[in-house]
Structure formats: structure tokens, C-alpha cells
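LAGLIDADG family homing endonuclease
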Amino acid sequence: MEINAQDIDLLREFRKLTPYYSSVTERTRSTNFAQTSHTAVWTVCSLEARTRLNELGLPYGHKSTAISPPCVEFSRRDYLRGLIDADGSVGYTSRGLPFVSLTTASTAAGAYLCDYAKEVTGVQRAVTRNTRDGIYNILYTMEAGQRLAADLYYPGSLSLARKQVAADSLAVWGRPPGMRVAHTRRRWNETEDRILLKINSPTAAAERLGRTVQSCSLRLWRLRSGQAPTPSDQ
């Protein structure tokens, strides 16, 4: 595992926690991305260790599209924090809004983050590849980004120090006065449709269902005009 030399302390923690002999070294070289690249490398040569990792679900060879959550019981948020540390970002956007993001080629990894984040933040994200390079770019901003960062980067968690600092900084953000909260669409269900059709009054139905008169009026029109399917028992 090779990372920027500024994050070498994380590799040293890995070395302490691994029950196999391993080494942490540094090297400086020229790459396609920088004239001088100073990196830290953690190396585990034990065949038993590599075999065990493979059994836990880490594939051999190219992993970007094949990587997926472990096939045994594991710590969900610690696993996801590792993905964010490696292939994600935490911080503030150019507009000063908190965010957490993940860039991945793996459908399994992207879907797993979306499922977990839905439980933590209540925000649903679609797992869709971008058209340019077929990569998933999953983004959570504002309150959702705050909640996800606080959950993944909890105090004392093992992570890249700079991303822990960035995650901690999100806690102080507050929604500016006047910034509208994005509306999350509330889908109609058959029970509500039955009540709406039975009452047959957008105003009365709005009070009964806890919806707006406009929403009830539009839904009633859609049901009557065939734009929306009527409940199965109607």
C-alpha cells in the first residue's frame, strides 16, 4: 500500500495492528503526476496474510471494479471510512458547503455507501455511472454531509489525520439564514389514493393526509385522468 509520505503515521498504525511481519518505507521518484513524488509504502509479504485477505473478499490483481464489502461480519462505518480515506473527499465546497464524496468504479462499493448513508442521513442517492468515464461520483452535502462525516470519522477512529481534521471542521457549519431546505418528494401510496378518492375534496384531503391542497388537487386530477394508476380495489 503506497500513500503520500505526509500520511505515513497511518501506515505505522497498520503495522502495529497487523499480526504478521510488515515494513513501512519511504521513497522519492518522478511520476506522471509530479516531478518529485515522496511516498510511504506499507508491505506485507506473508502468504498467510495475503490468503486471509483474499478469503475475506479482497480480490487479487486489478481491484477498482471488483472491490466489494467483506463477505463476513465487519464494522460497516470503519470499512466505509477506509474507502473515503482512499478514494473520497471530506471538506467544504467552493461555496462553503460541507460535503463527503466517494469516487469509485465499483458498483458494489458505491451501492453499499448509498445504502449506509441512507440509514444515517435519510438521503437517498442513485448509483449512476457518469457518462464521461463510467465512474461513480457519490456526493453528500450540507446537513447530510455533516451527519455522514460525524458518523464515519468518530473520535479516536483510525483514519488519515488530515481527513479527520476536515471531518471535525464540518461540525461548526450552520445553514445560512434564508437558505432554502431542499424539498424531498413524498411519494403517494395506494392507501392515500383511496382516502383522496373517497373524500373527493383536495382541501379536506389535505388536512386528513398532512399534504398541501395543491398536491392533493394535482394527484386527484392524475387519478381521474388516468395519469396515475388507481388503487387496485377501486
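thats it. Residues 107-121 form the longest helix (15 residues). DSSP finds nine helices and six strands in the chain. bye
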